[in-house]
Amino acid sequence: MHFFRSVVGLVSILLSETLAAPSDLRSRDLNSFIAAERAIALQGALNNIGPNGSAVPGAGAGFVVASPSKVNPDYFFTWTRDSALTLKMLIDEFIFGNTALLPTIWGYVHAQAKLQTVSNPSGTFLPAGLGLAEPKYQVDGTRFNGAWGRPQRDGPALRAIALMTFSNWLIDNGQKSTAKTIIWPIISNDLSYVGQYWNQTGFDLWEETLGSSFFTVQNQHRSLVQGAQLAKDLGVTCTGCDQAPELLCFLQSFWNGEYIVSNININNGRTGLDGNSILGSISVFDIDAYCNSPTIQPCNSQALANFKVLMDTFRTTYTINNGIPEGQGIAVGRYGEDVYQGGNPWYLITNAAAEFLYDAVAQWKARHNLIVDETSLAFFKDLYPTVTVRQYNSGNANSPFAQIMNAVTAYADSFVAVAEKYIPADGHLAEQFNRDTGVLLSAVDLTWSYAAFVTMSQRRAGQYPASWGTRNATAPPATCAATSTQGINVVFNVNASTYFGENIYVIGNTDDLGAWDIANSLPLGAGGYTSERPLWSASAYLNAGESVSYKYVRQENCDQPYIYETLNRTLTVPACGSASITEEDAWVGPVGTSGNC
Ligand SMILES: *[C@@H]1O[C@H](CO)[C@@H](O)[C@H](O)[C@H]1NC(C)=O
Ligand SMILES: *[C@@H]1O[C@H](CO)[C@@H](O)[C@H](O)[C@H]1NC(C)=O
Ligand SMILES: *[C@@H]1O[C@H](CO)[C@@H](O)[C@H](O)[C@H]1NC(C)=O
Ligand SMILES: *[C@@H]1O[C@H](CO)[C@@H](O)[C@H](O)[C@H]1NC(C)=O
Ligand SMILES: *[C@@H]1O[C@H](CO)[C@@H](O)[C@H](O)[C@H]1NC(C)=O
């Protein structure tokens, strides 16, 4: 019935007399399955991206459709979260060597620049960015007006993370100015949003709960740490990134002494045990991180303790998990109280459980040690009964360290084997599989299910994204505070007709505007540029009450000199506590022409 397995099974039978360890046979089997399914999953995700995705005719260029399913459920929309997670996977695949993905990545960049400016039920883009947290749009990038759980504040952070990963590749490959002028303005909008609104509640990744979500806060923190470094590398100012230590402080409050309560600042009668926590830790995975990093990596003791408690819940929740002992992979869903579509295990969370464990093993191996403490002891006991509270240093293949690594890796593989068992012969994934029968159900060809299979496969194959700077992250303050980006949000809008390849900056006498140094001026975005209105815009947080002198500058192509406006403009930033202000300007001075190089 599973075509990959039937071929592999034959090989296994032929080899079974020469290979001693049965585990070798099993892992061989799993390897072949993963290789075949990874290719199907990558293609499955691409099939759902416009304009060329074969499963989503009608989707606009660069838009990731959640699923081709149009009824029960209707997922024929583009979600900011699902799209960003999918693109993060594709960008990593690209960096790992799949160069054919570049046009798809650029399609996403251009689509998101536009999408940020689309007014929607969460709000508008200007002046305060409220529209950025809209969870979903029509597949052509127009607004969706139906009732929904909004706002969802993980979207801007996840999009920024995907775009920053791509920006780092551009910088490493001699395209720093492209990263600065085309991509940074999009990222900057999202980071400003995070800095301003992180301390307000929003809907979680399952779109049901209005509170503070572990997954959201972890990704928001990561986005600001990564943003501060990228801003430094590009010579620009990151508005909002100064909030990172406060987010890290807040992140510590999700731990209740036994497990991670995935949603706080809410009273919904649930335990808070939720796959949210697994997805959070894998999305901030950093191969260079220390296991005691407050970013709560997969190898962190709290994350491991939480993993065990969460898995033990699901062990008794679904019929298909009946009789599977502790320390063996199971089918994993969102949370125990789930009733959506009957409340079933999900492919993407079952594979995320495996990815989490592969991540943890990679981190211990990279650090060459493992520290078992009282918090994580129960997790290890299920896998290596003689474990004690102590430090295990790496050693030879028979060392306790190596044995524990093998046991955790086998545990990870056993989750993939469960997924394999419930993936149909053609390799297609849906959103869920039935808790009693294992038959797939809900949205077919869910893009996120495919993306999750690929990221799990990457980690299992030893493919790790570059560090995002966990070691550089500022430690949280001793006492947490409810804060938000300081300053007054000033929006710079200028009408300036430009040729393709020409860019606009705003420069001025304050540090935020580059102190008249063109290398540190603020790039404007052209996401709102239309044939009716040649709009370039950016927003910046300026010090309340200060007087600013500024002007716009054109950056020409073909190494032609910059063109400055011929006047100095002035603006007085209002006092503290004022709402944001918008400068509406029109270009004054000579214009440029393409050098046609
Ligand atoms: C879509 O297909 C067209 C025509 O083959 C091609 O030029 C374009 O690059 C493709 N777009 C993406 C994002 O792959
Ligand atoms: C805001 O931050 C404070 C300090 O970390 C925290 O106690 C509070 O729960 C946060 N509220 C929200 C909605 O994020
Ligand atoms: C950490 O900070 C150092 C010093 O600023 C910098 O060179 C390095 O690139 C940073 N690492 C990451 C991953 O951002
Ligand atoms: C006017 O702008 C130029 C940069 O074009 C700057 O060097 C100069 O200091 C500005 N003058 C005032 C009075 O702000
Ligand atoms: C910018 O262009 C729009 C559309 O043409 C126009 O309504 C607006 O008045 C212009 N702004 C300025 C400051 O000229």
Automatic annotation (TrEMBL):
EC number per UniProt: 3.2.1.3
InterPro entries: 6-hairpin_glycosidase_sf, 6hp_glycosidase-like_sf, Carb-bd-like_fold, CBM20, CBM20_glucoamylase, GH15-like, Glucoamylase, Glucoamylase_active_site
GO biological process: polysaccharide catabolic process
GO molecular function, one term: glucan 1,4-alpha-glucosidase activity
Transmembrane segments: none
Signal sequence bounds: 1-20
Listed GO CC annotations: fungal-type vacuole
Residues engaged in binding substrate: 148
Active site: 204 (proton acceptor), 207 (proton donor)
Catalytic activities: Hydrolysis of terminal (1->4)-linked alpha-D-glucose residues successively from non-reducing ends of the chains with release of beta-D-glucose
Enzyme class, UniProt record, top EC level: hydrolase
Chain ranges of the CBM20 domain: 482-589
Keyword annotations: Carbohydrate metabolism, Glycoprotein, Glycosidase, Hydrolase, Polysaccharide degradation, Signal
UniProt similarity note: Belongs to the glycosyl hydrolase 15 family.
Name listed for the protein in its UniProt record: Glucoamylase
Source species: Hyaloscypha bicolor E
Taxonomic lineage from the root: Eukaryota, Fungi, Dikarya, Ascomycota, Pezizomycotina
